[in-house]
Amino acid sequence: MTLSLSTSTISSAFLRSTGAIAIAMLYTALTFGAALTPTAAEARTSSAYYTAELSAPAKEARTIIRGVVWYCKDTTCRAKKSNSRPINTCKRLSNKMGEVTSFTAKGEALAEEKLAKCNS
């Protein structure tokens, strides 16, 4: 008995299995991405590294300053951690949003003299 397979049969089977694998990998990547991506509400509240109180209510609910996304409601603004020192982050916020009356980074309040520098 002789087994003969043509090259078109082999390449057709290979393409079907490769396509199925590619679709399965894409589906897996999309479902993991959707499962692990925080919702907008989580991004605004649960993982805030910086919290700032402004002297006047913020004009915008969401502001991006040098790559840091700030979520503000009334006079309170929150953001995730940046690569800058807290004093620099505070200064940038103050320059764009106005006077900062208090600023905390990871729950630690900025000292009064640094807060004064932040607003200068």
Describe the structure.
The chain starts with 6 loop residues before the first helix and ends with a helix. 46% of the residues lie in helices and 22% in strands. It folds into two domains: 31 residues; 79 residues, no CATH class. The chain has a six-stranded antiparallel β-sheet. The longest helix has 30 residues. It is an alpha+beta fold and 120 residues long.
Order of helical and strand elements = HHEEEEHEEH
Q: Helix/strand-derived class?
A: alpha+beta
Poorly predicted runs: none
- Average of pLDDT: 81
DSSP strand tally: 6
List the helices and strands and how they pair.
Layout lengths: L6 H30 L3 H6 L4 E5 L7 E4 L2 E6 L2 E4 L6 H12 L2 E6 L2 E2 L2 H7 L2
Antiparallel strand pairs: 1-4, 1-5, 2-3, 3-4, 5-6
Helix pairs in contact: 3-4
What are the key terms here?
alpha+beta, 6 strands, 120 residues, 2 domains, six-stranded antiparallel sheet
Short description:
This protein is α+β, with helices and mostly antiparallel strands and 120 residues long.
